[in-house]
Amino acid sequence: MFSSNAFAAVSGSLPAGFMQWYVGLMIVAVIVGTVADMIHKGSAKYFFANARKTRAQGKPVNKASIAVKTVAVDVLASGEFCNPRRRVAHLLTMYGFILYVVTTALMVFVYPTAATPTPALVSQLWWLGGLMVMVGGYWFWFFIRVDVAAEGSSPLRLMRADLFILSLLASVTAGLLWAWLQASGSAVSWLFFGLYLLATTVLFGGVYWSKFAHMFFKPAAAFDKRLAEADGTNMNLPLLSRDDPAQRERHSMELLRDAPMDMGLGIKREAPRHY
Description:
Elements: H1 6-11, H2 18-41, H3 43-55, H4 63-75, H5 84-110, H6 120-144, H7 163-183, H8 189-205, H9 214-231, H10 245-249, H11 254-257
């Protein structure tokens, strides 16, 4: 079971090239959705405009070393997460997803039929990647995600921000169940194959409405932040000081206008339980 290619096994019952065309359409959907998201949010426009604005103000820095540090710390090690459980769950999901997607592409395009035997290692890595996504994703959803009940909301309440993780978990779970049932010779496997295609279409076709594109934006944002810290511009943000009348007046509540700037930081003394 762990050494078989479920895509090759099902190819004989589908139109020629069906899975190749489907994966190709999903790639196009991701590109179109990401570009549309960039245009809608204006993220790329902001980054380029900010770079031009700060280029003349900041001191010279080694951008190559900053890029390497960004990739090593913020991307590969998910250094943005202070909570170690959150970081481990994210790393499991991220590397599992990468492994799952790469091996899926290999099995669909390089070993598409039984006439091109799939190396056992490729199939085993596909299973490993899927299981990593499930462990990290379900761990996040049930134990690390914001406790909506603590905020007075129903635990069954779903938001648009949940579309990415839910469609990802649905796609991978249905995919692994389909492969397992297919290897067992169960006719029910076709039901899970249909669910797999549906969930995968929502995952890749819903990029514009979900958090899918964050995997492309966050590295750029992390690099921009490190660059601003290194060249001294710090995104041109004003200093938070009560000596500045504009900073005092920015609060809508009069009681906060004369409060110290670090008021409320005592919350950091208590370990977060719901995030």
